[in-house]
Amino acid sequence: MKRAREVIITVIGFKKEIEDSDISKLPFLQVMLKEALLLHPPAPFLLPHKVKVSTEINGYMVPKNAQVLVNVWAIG
């Protein structure tokens, strides 16, 4: 957070609020937000996926064309 504040003060300054157009000037902030979303995704599941080939995972058979939901909260 200290580094992020320093970058914002250096690039934007104290007088104005951050606007959408300023985001491109703040790559460190972009990286911080991406990392935060990786660690704490905003939604529990990814979009549904369809299995292309029948496969076995941990002893469970997953048939071809089955719909699979990936729980990203459990992965995190």
Automatic annotation (TrEMBL):
Q: Can you tell me where the transmembrane regions are?
A: none
Q: Which terms in the Gene Ontology molecular function aspect does this entry carry?
A: heme binding; iron ion binding; monooxygenase activity; oxidoreductase activity, acting on paired donors, with incorporation or reduction of molecular oxygen
Concerning InterPro entries, the annotation shows: Cyt_P450, Cyt_P450_sf
Xref: Pfam families = p450
Provide the family line: Belongs to the cytochrome P450 family.
Write down what this protein is called.
Answer: Cytochrome P450
